[in-house]
């Protein structure tokens, strides 16, 4: 298969893990039924807790997380590549990892990536986030091998750090996953611009599944899951409601764009100001 159909599953996850697993699985089945061979879900697929402490209280280590067996079995049943945007995986008594999983059609975990850049910010509207208080940041970029080529894994706030995507592109990634739960103010201002920029800068596809809408704990997320091609063209975009978007992906387009604008070959070291 030289080309394939990719899908983004947009969710509005809540605080009940079992319900979230069931809802995500239904949409994954819908995407597979539409012919998708690569299906991506958002950050916090199975748990959108009120705060980091509540998330930690409901989290398990990887060996005991209830979502992984469900999703590995589903990928095997459907014969698809399944990118679970992130799960909260307990790594100590006080912290979780915000971890993305790429599952192959054989049901095996093909790659894991723990979010490197953590969202610690105070917003003008009074919202405050301190992800680092209860989340341990990752330290390693990951490019997963697939039948179509390398796919670089990232999570949400990583999107603002262009050097991560540059490194993954140079390591062979023709596409990036960017599962997210963007806030509404930052989403309105930056979501589409940043995703298109990462695609254009690196001549890569971007597959960005998002959380969207008003969640049961009062949090609001931007939605607007996107699939962007290496020229920066938006191939598919969701609104704010849960659902599925799809687009055809031709990895050859990445090679063509990189040949037209070979900026990956033109990086140079330079002295600082």
Descriptive keywords:
Nitrilase/N-carbamoyl-D-aminoacid amidohydrolase, alpha/beta, 273 residues, 6-stranded mixed sheet, 29% strand, globular
What do you see in this structure?
With 273 residues, the chain is an alpha/beta fold. The protein has a single domain (4-262), classed as 4-Layer Sandwich (Nitrilase/N-carbamoyl-D-aminoacid amidohydrolase), CATH 3.60.110. Helices cover 27% and strands 29% of the residues. It has 6 helices and 16 strands. The protein has a 6-stranded mixed β-sheet with strand order 5-4-3-2-1-16. The protein starts with a strand and ends in a 13-residue tail after the last helix.
For the secondary structure, the number of strands is 16
Q: CATH superfamily membership, which one? A: Carbon-nitrogen hydrolase
CATH C-level label: Alpha Beta
Order of helices and strands: EHEHHEEEEEEEHEHEEEEEEH
Overall outline = globular
Query: Span between N and C termini?
Result: 48 Å
Structural class, from helix and strand content?
A: alpha/beta
Low-confidence stretches: none
Largest sheet: 6 strands, mixed
* Arithmetic mean of pLDDT: 96
CATH T-level topology: Nitrilase/N-carbamoyl-D-aminoacid amidohydrolase
Helical residue percent? 25-40%
Q: What is the C-alpha radius of gyration, as a whole number of Å?
A: 17 Å
Number of domains: 1
Number of helices: 6
Give the structure's gist in a few sentences.
With 273 residues, the chain is an alpha/beta fold.
Q: Secondary-structure blueprint of this entry?
A:
Blueprint lengths: L3 E7 L6 H17 L4 E3 L11 H6 L9 H12 L2 E10 L5 E8 L5 E6 L5 E3 L5 E3 L11 E5 L2 E5 L8 H9 L2 E5 L6 H19 L2 E4 L3 E3 L5 E3 L3 E3 L5 E4 L5 E7 L1 H10 L13
Parallel strand pairs: 1-2, 2-3, 9-10, 10-11
Antiparallel strand pairs: 1-16, 3-4, 4-5, 6-7, 8-9, 11-14, 12-13, 14-15
